[in-house]
Amino acid sequence: MHILVVNNIYPPIMAGGAERIVAYLCEGLVERGHRVTVVSTCGPEMEPYPVEVRNGVEVIRFFPPNVYWSFERPLKPGAKKWVWHARDAWNLAAAKRFQAILDEARPDVMNTHLIDGFSAAIWARARRAGVPVMHTAHDYHLMCPRAFMLTGDWKLCTKPRVHCRLYRDWHLRTTRHVDLFASPSRFLLDLHRRAGLRSRTEAVVHNGIPLPEDGDEIRRRRDPEASRRFLMLTRLTVEKGIQTVLDAAAHLPRHLPFEIAIAGRGPLEETVRAAAGSDPRIRYLGFLDGKAKAEALARAGHLLLPSLWYENAPVTIVEAAAYGLGIAGSDIGGIPEFVEPGQTGYLFPPGDHRALAGILSHLANNPAALPDLAARSRALAERFSVERMIDSYEAHYAALTQAGTTAMAAQ
């Protein structure tokens, strides 16, 4: 098949986990003999961006005409963001540029992921051209201008304001152009459905990551003292629950031996540094990737995921499971779908630092608190391998192209 994949950014331009998942998918599809064309964005100063081939994947980038590049949105003032969103509701200029690529590529199927900047206008263009459309939601972009479902003071949004409701209603109406709407978690899919999703069909398609070849060996030789070591790999932002972890550590008695290692970057970096300076049990590791990240995972015994927002399908859970770590996570969003309480970890109410402190104390004092963790974490990781993810996408692509062929034959 020739598969056209759309994501607002693509490596080497990176911001979070979605573009990593998209790259794993695209490169894996190429290895299986498919032709993959990625359409992504770039800043206006980067145009014309040369077409490139990365690990067998053809990558085409352009700037979707707007007041600024979506990748720079966090740096812009609020008023300008609303102007950007107004144009992004149905960006005809971006759709016209996309149409030229679509006409030349003539793909068998299109799979969109994060479409910020392109707008849903590209769905309509693909449908008009007879190309089946699959959309994979990685966040709440279609339901919330901030994509987090949080208020300005970082509380869960339960009563969206009028302009936010208009934003949501419009974007969910555009999903009528989608043949298959997919999500890596049941929670995110159900939330979209309850809000008014209009796609023809729906499915849960789990994310997948490359698993370490030495995962079994790491699990076998893990230091018994690892049960006292907790690791947090995250953006250092309010919604990730940084303060919940710091408050939990402060709540525990000073004589309790444990270690909390926090890795990442973000606006709360100085807060984490200050906590590490005042409590030797807290370590700030900075941003980790590659070998350094693997070493941190191999050293730890448990992953902390104290999110305050509706996480979708955190890749860090699978990474931790691949290294045999237990999970201490918030009971919110898609997180409970990936944690077996008492088996692969524990859940606690989001923001409840006392409940988290109790879990930390229990795990630090009881090395055998999760007796079957090695076997269960391995099984969890294998459910979310790249190979299984690609299997699922291939099956959906084939079904969509077959349905399209059948529909054309019927006409």
Number of domains: 2
* CATH fold-type name of the largest domain: Rossmann fold
Report the sheet with the most strands, covering strand number, pairing sense and barrel closure: 8 strands, mixed
Major sheet strand order:
3-4-2-1-5-6-7-8
Q: Could you give me the name of the CATH homologous superfamily of the largest domain?
A: Glycogen Phosphorylase B
Strand percentage, roughly? 15-25%
- Unreliable stretches, pLDDT < 50, 5 or more residues? none
How many DSSP H or I helices?
Answer: 14
Q: What is the H/E order?
A: EHEEEHHEHEHEHEHEHEHEHEHEEHHH
CATH secondary-structure class of the largest domain: Alpha Beta
The beta-strand count equals 14
* CATH architectural designation of the largest domain: 3-Layer(aba) Sandwich
- Shape category: globular
For the record, give the distance between the C-alpha atoms at the N and C termini, rounded to a whole number. 23 Å
Could you characterize what this model shows?
- It is a single chain.
- The protein has two domains: 2-209 and 385-410, Glycogen Phosphorylase B (Rossmann fold, 3-Layer(aba) Sandwich), CATH 3.40.50; 215-383, Rossmann fold.
- It is globular.
- The protein has 411 residues and is of the alpha/beta class.
- The two termini are 23 Å apart.
- The mean pLDDT is 92.
- Helix 5 (162-173) links the parallel strand 6 (133-136) and strand 7.
- The chain is built from 14 helices and 14 strands.
- The strands form two sheets. It has an eight-stranded mixed beta sheet with strand order 3-4-2-1-5-6-7-8, sandwiched between helices.
- 40% of the residues lie in helices and 16% in strands.
